[in-house]
Amino acid sequence: MLNKISKTRANFMYSLYMDGDIIFTLGWEGKFSSKNISDVLKEYLINKFEIPCNSIISIKESKDTVGDAFFSRLQLQKLRLDYQKIKIITSNWHLPRAKEIFSTIIQDKRLEFYGVDTEGDKNKEEDSLEKFKETFHGVDFSNLESLRERIMNKHPLYKK
């Protein structure tokens, strides 16, 4: 089951949805569910808004905002999706960090950011952004392999 924040983001996403759009749902297992959040979100969008199943790609590997951006970039490349504009929907309190991370990792696309009014802890955002900058200092973000190597070797949620 989706929490209130996820539903609010999904409902807002639907207000922007147009036929032909491809939607990425992102996220791993939640604290209170054995199901992957990205799959639950996909089911919600299909059942509530009748968005075609083939218009939604569930990205299960993502565990945080860095992963959201990285695995989205991988998926865009893998599927050869050449959208010039990508819409990123998140919570308003998370927007500054999401903008910085996505803009750093996905540099070759026009990104549009939307902050949805939800509850959250804005205080942790600055610390988390500083950790991102420290972890990825010196990475050549234009080089996907350089980025992948840093994520898999230095990021606490992904390192082996």
Task: Give the SSE map.
Elements: H1 4-16, E1 23-26, H2 37-49, E2 56-59, H3 65-78, E3 85-91, H4 95-105, E4 110-116, H5 123-135, H6 144-154
Parallel strand pairs: 1-2, 3-4
Helix pairs in contact: 1-2, 3-4, 4-5
Can you describe what's shown?
Helix 4 links the parallel strand 3 and strand 4. It contains 6 helices and 4 strands. Helix 1 crosses helix 2 (37-49) and helix 3 (65-78) packs parallel to helix 4 (95-105). It is of the alpha/beta class. It has a two-stranded parallel sheet. A two-stranded parallel sheet has the order 3-4. The protein is globular and about 45 Å long.
Record field, number of beta strands: 4
Largest sheet: 2 strands, parallel
Taking all Cα atoms into account, the compactness measure Rg is 15 Å
Shape: globular
The mean pLDDT is 92
Number of helices: 6
Provide the low-confidence segments as ranges.
Answer: none
Strand arrangement, largest sheet? Answer: 1-2
Fraction in helix = 40-55%
Terminus-to-terminus distance: 30 Å
- Succession of helices and strands: HEHEHEHEHH
Beta-strand portion reads 5-15%
Q: What structural category do the secondary elements indicate? A: alpha/beta
